Amino acid sequence: MNAATNTKVIAFEARHRQGNSPQAIALQASPNSPRTNRRSRRPVRQARLKLPRPLLYPLRLLIVGVGVSACIGTILSAANLRSVPTVTPPDNITSQQLLSEQVSPPPAPAPLPLKTPLTQLAETTQAAIAADSTLDASLLFVDLDTGEYLDVAGDRPLSAASTIKIPILVAFFEAVDSGKVNLDDSLTLTQEVIGGGSGGMQYKTPGSTYTALYTATEMSVNSDNTATNMITELLGGNAVLNAKFQQWGMTQTQLNNPLPDLEGTNLTSAKDLAHLLARVNQGEILSVRSRDRLFRIMGATSNDRLLPQSLGQGADIVHKTGDIGSIIGDAGIVDLPNGKRYVAAIFVERPYNDPKGKELLHKISRQFYDHMAKKEIIQAPSQPVAPETAPAPTP
Q1: Sign (positive/negative) of CA torsion 171, 276, 326, 241?
Q2: Residue ranges covered by each domain of the chain
Q3: Which residues make beta-bridge pairs with 209?
Q4: Fewer CB within 10 Å of terminal CB in the chain, N or C?
Q5: Fold of 116-373
Q6: Which of 295, 251, 258 is nearest to 162 (CA)?
Q7: Range from 55-64, 93-102, 147-156, 285-294 carrying the lowest mean pLDDT
Q8: What is the β-pairing status of strands 116-117 and 148-152?
């Protein structure tokens, strides 16, 4: 091996050792190899170029293939991350519940059976309202069997007064059905939830405790405003309840302030209340047990001065009233002695505490009751009548 070749080998070995070692530096700085750094790179390039072609081309294709695969994998990973966002369910919702909600969205609210408008009765009702310019009314009455209905501005939003307690009571029993609330849960009376107006719980000492069922019952039976505020707090507040009302199809109903809402900022409509009561009656929203309990509570409403005064002897009603002076309202389900059932929701706007408002409510409600009382339910025979058989021919 000559001196020039020896110098190149030494430089090649020095380059592939640890570059900062004293031995490598000494070899690169040898006086027998001038311009060592410049020439030492040439053998590397020549070595790569002199690889056999049968190995060189497959090696290059392999390197390019690996690079392309890495790029495609990165793009696909990024796309997958964008298309499947990560969702962290709340602590109180199991993954099975979340999956069930995603796969099976809640069904759309079933509409009221509005089939046949009672045109003549509507004209009579509108004439009675127009007879006194100081009064106005909004109402919806529906025969739950035939779909006949009386509608006068039934979808107009109005101050709900204490009728807002109807959807709150339904929401309470829905929470019981879902296991979020137990009937015997203990609720504590606080200063913040005490409300004036109707009800006796406002006079109790803060810190007193009551079961959830007792509080909900007081809210409806005695229209207790303090109890209403306690149940509203238990169920998550106004925003949670308003979302629930919208889910039920109550587009005009909104809970904005605690009770007593003397300014009338809490809203609803006759159609919203009739729609909700019809759905509960048809077995929607609530379990059978909770529906029956809700109807028992509403059947014990202490204020019987509105819709109940419009009914004939032998009729039953489950209902809830509302009164803030400038507007009175009542909504419920009526059972007649002839077996008919209808839903009724009516509001009358009036000068403050004017008794003519109550008289108009009674007149309108009585006219629909009389219309329903004239009907007869035709019941099909329980068993089909067998046709007569002809006598067998004699031989």
Answers
A1: positive
A2: 3-49, 116-373
A3: 188
A4: C
A5: Beta-lactamase (3.40.710)
A6: 258
A7: 93-102
A8: parallel
